[in-house]
C-alpha cells in the first residue's frame, strides 16, 4: 500500500513495526562495455575503469558499517558488487527485480538521448507516469525495486545495506521518494560508481543523501 501526499510518495507497506530504520546505500555499477552499441537486455562487462570504480566504491563503504551487499542480476552490477564486497569482506546476494528499466520497443535500437532524458527528467519532478513504450513506467520501475528493498528492510532493521543497481533505477527511486530534491542527481548524470542513501523507517521511505 502507498500513501500519496503532494510532491511526495511515502511507501508504508511491507515492513511491520520498523522502529529502527534500515539504511540503503544504492550505487550505480561501474563503467561497462557491451557487445553492441544498440540498447539490449544483456548484462555488460566492467571495463578497467569500471573495476577501479567498483574498488573505490568498496573503499568508500569501509566507514559505513555495511552489513550486507545485494545487487541486480545483470552482470555489470554483479561484477561491481563482488569487487566492492571483496574490499569489505562480505558476501554478495543477487536479487531479481533490481535490474534496469527494460528497453521495451527500443530494444535493438540506438539510445535516443532526447526521449530518455525527457523521461527521467519527468521522473525526478515526481511524474512517474512517463515510461518506455513496451517497457515500464517510472512508477513500475520504482515499485518493482522498492518491493525488493522493503523485503530486505524487514530483515535489516538498524543496519546498512549496500545495493548495486542502475542509473535509471536510481532516478526512479528519487522521483518516488524525494521528487524535485536538490540532492538528486541530474537527469543525465548518475556517474558510474556513485551512491545515494535512502532509509526505510516506520513512516516510510526518505532520501538522506
Give a written overview of the molecule.
32% of the residues lie in helices and 22% in strands. By secondary structure, it is α/β, with parallel strands linked by helices. The strands form 3 sheets. Strands 7-6-8-3-9-10 form a 6-stranded mixed sheet, sandwiched between helices. Strand 1 and strand 2 form a beta hairpin. Helix 1 packs across helix 2, helix 3 runs parallel beside helix 5 and helix 4 crosses helix 5. The longest helix has 17 residues, at 138-154. The protein starts with a strand and ends with a strand. Mean pLDDT is 91; it is low at 1-18.
C-alpha geometry: globular
Mean pLDDT equals 91
**Tally of helical runs:** 5
Tally of extended strands? 10
**Classification by helices and strands:** alpha/beta
Question: Could you give the order of the helices and strands?
Answer: EEEEEHEHEHHEHEE
User: Radius of gyration over alpha carbons?
Assistant: 16 Å
Main sheet attributes: strand count, strand direction, barrel closure? 6 strands, mixed
Strand order within the widest beta sheet: 7-6-8-3-9-10
Which spans of ≥5 residues are poorly predicted at pLDDT below 50? Answer: 1-18
Short description:
The chain has 209 residues and is an alpha/beta fold. The protein is 32% helix and 22% strand.
List keywords for this structure.
single chain, 209 residues, alpha/beta, six-stranded mixed β-sheet
Give the SSE layout.
Blueprint: E1 2-5, E2 8-11, E3 22-28, E4 32-33, E5 45-46, H1 48-60, E6 66-71, H2 75-88, E7 92-94, H3 113-124, H4 138-154, E8 160-165, H5 167-177, E9 195-201, E10 204-207
Parallel strand pairs: 3-8, 6-7, 6-8
Antiparallel strand pairs: 1-2, 3-9, 4-5, 9-10
Amino acid at each position: 500500500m502507498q500513501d500519496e501526499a503532494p510532491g511526495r510518495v511515502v511507501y508504508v507497506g511491507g515492513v511491520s513495526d520498523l522502529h529502527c530504520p534500515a539504511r540503503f546505500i544504492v550505487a550505480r555499477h561501474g563503467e561497462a562495455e557491451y557487445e553492441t552499441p544498440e540498447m539490449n537486455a544483456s548484462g555488460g562487462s566492467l571495463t578497467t575503469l569500471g573495476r577501479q570504480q567498483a574498488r573505490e566504491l568498496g573503499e568508500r563503504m569501509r566507514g559505513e558499517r555495511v552489513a550486507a551487499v545485494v545487487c541486480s542480476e545483470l552482470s555489470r552490477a554483479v561484477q561491481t558488487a563482488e569487487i566492492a564486497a571483496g574490499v569489505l569482506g562480505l558476501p554478495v546476494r543477487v536479487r531479481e527485480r533490481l535490474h534496469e528499466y527494460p528497453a521495451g520497443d527500443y530494444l535493438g535500437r540506438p539510445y535516443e538521448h532526447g526521449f530518455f532524458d525527457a523521461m527521467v527528467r519527468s521522473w525526478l519532478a515526481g511524474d512517474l507516469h512517463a515510461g518506455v513504450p513496451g517497457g515500464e513506467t517510472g512508477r513500475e520501475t520504482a515499485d518493482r525495486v522498492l518491493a525488493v528493498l522493503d523485503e530486505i528492510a524487514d530483515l535489516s532493521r538498524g543496519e546498512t545495506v549496500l545495493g548495486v543497481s542502475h542509473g535509471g533505477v536510481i532516478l526512479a527511486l528519487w522521483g518516488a521518494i524525494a521528487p524535485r530534491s536538490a540532492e538528486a542527481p541530474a537527469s543525465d548524470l548518475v556517474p558510474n560508481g556513485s551512491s545515494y542513501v535512502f532509509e526505510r523507517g516506520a513512516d516510510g521511505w526518505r532520501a538522506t543523501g
